[in-house]
Amino acid sequence: MPIIKSAKKAARQSVKRTEHNKEIKKAIKAALKTFKANPTAENMRKIQSEYDKAAKKGLIKKNTASRRKANLAKIAKAAGAKPAAKKAAAKKTTTKKAAAKTTK
User: Fold this and answer.
1) Which of 36, 65, 76, 83 could bridge 55 with an S-S bond, Cβ 3.0-4.6 Å?
2) Which CATH number characterizes residue 65's domain?
3) pTM: predicted TM-score of the whole model, two decimal places
4) CA-CA distance, 54 to 52, in Å (whole number)?
């Protein structure tokens, strides 16, 4: 058992962080299980989101998350599920620039 006050606090923080990390890993495993049972675009989106969150928090490395998402895409493709389409950014055209080009 720690004696120093800062060591006691560090031990408490470690327990909290461990519990939080376990919850995130359980969420990943649950989402993965759901996806493997029913590989749809919606389920793929959810599991990819879980991987991205875990990588952002430092629970898993970025390349690990990327590799696992790539493997999910292979599974989805083999199952015939279409990947969720990303929303295309709408391009804004300014009329001043277009007008200036046409007048020259």
Assistant:
1) 65
2) 1.20.58.110
3) 0.70
4) 5
In a domain, 98, yes or no: no
Tell me which amino acid residue 4 is: I
CA distances to 34, 40, 71, 73, 82 from 77, in Å: 16, 10, 10, 6, 7
Residues sharing a CB contact under 8 Å with residue 11, sequence separation 6 or more, in sequence order:
2
pLDDT reported for residue 93 = 60
Is pLDDT of 53 > 60?
A: yes
Q: Could you tell me how many residues make up the chain?
A: 104
Exposure string (b/e) for 62-77, b if CB count within 10 Å is 16 or more? Answer: eeebeebeeebeeebe
